[in-house]
Write a structure and sequence with these properties.
By secondary structure, the chain is mostly helical. The protein contains two helices and no strands. The longest helix has 12 residues, at 30-41. It is extended, with a radius of gyration of 16 Å.
């Protein structure tokens, strides 16, 4: 199916920067527009919070992804758990 979105992107009123996903090049909007379509598909941006990137990749491509957790060999810690 299709998800139709407009080109209005949520921005911070003070910084005038997009609130959610962005590209390195400020003139590119494809990340923000894909994220907006994905949020619309799931009801709202709030429903995307705390999601897993591998689930999003699967939704967008229909290809199964593999999650690889990298562990610090010296400490045994997983860096993503330290945040």
């Amino acid at each position: 199916g299709f998800v139709i979105v407009d080109d209005r992107i949520p921005v911070n009123t003070e910084s005038k920067q997009p609130v959610f996903g962005t590209c390195k090049n400020a003139h590119e909007l494809w990340v923000a527009l894909i994220e907006k379509a994905y949020a619309k598909l799931h009801g709202c941006y709030e429903n995307l919070i705390s999601g897993y990137i591998d689930e999003g990749i699967f939704d967008l491509t229909a290809f199964q992804s593999e999650k690889i957790l990298i562990r610090n060999e010296k400490t045994g810690d997983f860096p993503h758990k330290l945040i």
